[in-house]
Amino acid sequence: MTQAFQSPGFAALAADRAVETRLVDERWQAVAWDLGTGRRRVVTDRPGGVHLSEIEPDGDAVWWFDADNAGEGRWRREPFAGGAGGEALYGVPSGRAYGVAFDRTGALAAVVVGVDGASHCYVGPPAGQARLIGSAPGYLSLADLSPDGRLLALGGRPDGDDSVVLWPTGAQATVQTGAQADVQATVQAGAQADGPLRIAGHRRLRLWPIEFNPLAVLEPELLLVVEEDERYTVATWQAGTGLRRYPGLSFDSQISAGWYQGPREVLIQHERAGRSRLLLADLDPPEGQGAPQQGAAGRGPAEQAPPVREISTPGGTIHDLSCAPDGTLHCVWSRESTPPRPLVLRPGTETAHHPGQGLDPDQGDTSRSRRWTPRPYGRIHSFVSTPAGQGPWPTLFLVHGGPATHDRDSYDPRVNALVGRGYAVVRTNYRGSTGYGARWQHEYGHRVGLAQIEDLAAVRAELVADGTALAERTGLCGFSWGGYLALLAMGAQPELWSLGMAAQPIADYPAAYRTTTPALRELDRQLFGGTPDEVPERYRAADPRSYVHQVRSPVLLVASRTDERCPPDQVARYAADLRRLAVPHELLWVDGGHYSRRTADHRSVLATMVRFAEHAWPAPLPLPPRGDRPEVPAELVEGGEQP
């Protein structure tokens, strides 16, 4: 059994019990962890692996999502100590997992599943009969269930009318509807007393619900992150006071947050320029310990800003973290030279512990640097890894997906494998990436795809000019939305790129929109400002098939027949276009849907990409000085691009 894919999920009322998702025989499985004895018991043995697991607050049982290759399935439940299991909630249809949550004691559970283009909310006792609370068209994710079980918090489109949906579960207590309204956000009561409340966002205000305060039982208090005025700010909502921002907890790039141990302590993870940092703040500082601050959005009287203290970390990236009942933070951490591993932090002691492992230095055969490429609209940040020695080198841009994610100071086994074969590898955080502020992420005028490949071209030009990249041997390799950018650039910028490799890509944007999942259709409407019928010219300009007649260099396509995010038919049509145009190409069909849960599948795809690149660029490349060729390790499979 190797490292965890996610940080542990702890039982709030049973400090010695937790659940993990760990790599077992090259498949991710749910694992019950008894912290008292140190014993770990593998709960699942799914051939395709498991990505989602949870534990009930009292630690009695473990939940896991039993999904097929298309990502649809049901939540199942098994006693923590082992024994007969079954469905976690009866009467819930098979669908996509949009979230799971429990009340304070675990007596009531809530799930949201996606079925037939709608989100359906169910509640019920664990292992009991579920009751449908309500349904809504499109995609709503379940953020949390209030401690008293009376209120569901769901998140929709961050800048839409349903950015936050507060849905009563039908318990005896009623939910107050007198929430404040202002020009930034309005709370709209449902038509019926037991209907949902909505906190609406808009283009200049985006909202993300996080979780309810576990200690606020009498009046639920929801923690949120608010993006406005190009800042990301911690906020709370209560029925009696409405949305309250904390300007003293405002940041210039993306944050996530969660309640910590104290009555109103908050743990904040700040992502900036590819690195993570952790901070603790008390929303109710002791008298005299906070700094003066203005009221929400600059209105209201001055009040004390929450005192903030930073938790010492060893740099790099925190991929996931959770808080144990004793306040210890359990993280999955890595940096460019160090594979993902557990990191245990104890706030207040300033100590970090890597269970059973030290920090590995670079092995000396890879040079790593960070580049900032200046452009009129800002600086493009890239991570560049090269073989030891002097360039220029054949260069592959490893293009991240999303686009709402970013490459980080974190370990990526693909980088090591490609550098080991003699390639320079570039990971660029183009416009649309997170981690560089709201303007960098959103403001490129609905020029979807085109703005991003302009950034890739600008970085390429700089690397060619300074002797890092061989001009005639620069290529693109991407997965999912990164694969889409690779195909778009191969046709729109054919003079720049002599190789393109795209796994599970969007190859025909209008067709992909019509056949993908509801969540991704919602994302596309945000990116383009509408549907293909409403803004056809934008989709046409962003569509790789609009430029396929200009492709002149070899292309590798990797697709799965069970991929519902980037459906297979549109990839097959792009391959048919290449065949008709006599463009050298290869189409590889793989199992596992959009993202396989088997590490061997990812190693196989990467091996195919290495073979294809060596065939397209046939001159022999020097092997590394070691006697054996580098292989893709089993530690983490796709460089942190898990869904």
What's the main sheet like?
8 strands, antiparallel
Question: Terminal Cα separation, in Å?
Answer: 22 Å
Give start-end ranges of low-pLDDT stretches: 172-193, 295-302, 356-364, 623-643
Count the helices. How many?
9
Give the total of beta strands.
Answer: 41
- Estimate the global geometry from the Cα principal axes: globular
Using the CA coordinates, give the radius of gyration: 25 Å
Compute the average pLDDT.
Answer: 87
Structural class, please? alpha+beta
Overall helicity: 10-25%
Strand content: 35-45%
Q: Oligomeric form of this entry?
A: single chain
Q: Can you describe this structure in just a few lines?
A:
The chain is an alpha+beta fold and 643 residues long. It is 15% helix and 38% strand. The protein has 9 helices and 41 strands.
Question: What descriptors fit this protein?
Answer:
single chain; 643 residues; globular; disordered C terminus
